[in-house]
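Dear colleague,

As promised, here are the two records you asked about, laid out in our usual form so they can be pasted straight into your sheet.

NAME FIELD: protein one
SEQUENCE, THEN STRUCTURE:
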Amino acid sequence: MSESTDDARVDGPDSGPDIDARPEQSAEPAGDATGEDGSASDPEFDPEFDPDDPFGIGDGLGLDIGPLTEPKAAAEQLAAVTKERDEYLDLARRVQADFENYRRRVDAQRIEQAQRAAESLVAELLPVLDACDAAAAQGAEDVEPIAASLFGTLAKLGLERIEAVDAVFDPNQHEAVMQEPAGDGDTGTIVMEILRAGYQWNGRVVRPAMVKVRG
């Protein structure tokens, strides 16, 4: 009896696995990367991102940029902010100018008050100088160094003696207590004699000179 090779097939030890046997692959499509509420699950996603203002310019200027298709509205808002800035800048400049004027005025008043106080003190010392002058006129030579020292100290601070002899009478600097008739050739009132010395303190008359005039 003969054996048919077509009806029987012997698997030998060298027989390999069936080449069509492959693991099944999942045919489920990949889902979208979105959350339950439809928002993107990308960790870098910014829900406040404004596509009309991608660089956040409006946030920095306090403007509502709006759609890029509305440049006129953005220009008007920018003009309004610029105007407001200029108004505040002008106000700040005016306030600064007012403060500078106030400071200069206060400094001037402080200086004037100091000068007035010194002038008042000098006026109180003038009788002492008068007494020294009277004593020196009577021949008291010991008084002259004291009078010269006192007057020299005050002169360094601004005291000046009004020189009036042969000068034209000035009512701002002279006080006429005696008068003689005008002489030949006199064209005005002339100071003939000083009866009591007059003084100025830093250009301001502290006491006018008491004089005798002619004319």
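NAME FIELD: protein two
SEQUENCE, THEN STRUCTURE:
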Amino acid sequence: MAVKSESPAKERILRVSLDLFGRRGVSGATVGDIAKKAECSQAALYKYWEGKEVLAQELFESAYERLIRSMEDERDRWEGAVERVTGLLVGFLRFARRNPKEHALLFQVFHSEYVRWLAGTKKPSDVVADAIKAATKSGAIPPTNAYLKAAFALGMTIRLALFEQQNLVPGISRDQSESELVQALGAMLRSPGA
């Protein structure tokens, strides 16, 4: 969790909120739930934030910024147009692995009315689609609907992250599952059509 505080109470509220918002969604967690689990009063939350939505948005924006940075940093380590697309997705997977609670919060927000917090901001699908468009323009990927391929690629990556978090991929190391994801993404990206 990148959002840090000098106050122990504020730190507990941040930690508990991240967990509750990730498991229940922003709408499913109340100020009372947060205060009880953080062992503080509801007033303590309002001392630092105007309400739970402001708190949730702060946590979301921090996690989102770190996700995009992880994707772009990993992309920049790869050479080749298809490989750079794959790098974005490996960056996504690695972020989810390192930050399961933040990943859960992002997943909740992306699939709720709070997705409005992304208005005017590039979404992961935009980042991946832009890389696919560049790879298509260079001839590395056959002509395609970049957003459809991005949806497939993100779907594979997100599903693997969720399966790993739930221990639904037994008998395979993370390195091996990542390697197989890279191979599957490369094959899908290079295939004609979506």
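A couple of things worth noting about protein two: The CA atoms of residues 22 and 105 lie 4 Å apart. The two ends are 36 Å apart (CA to CA).

Best,
R.
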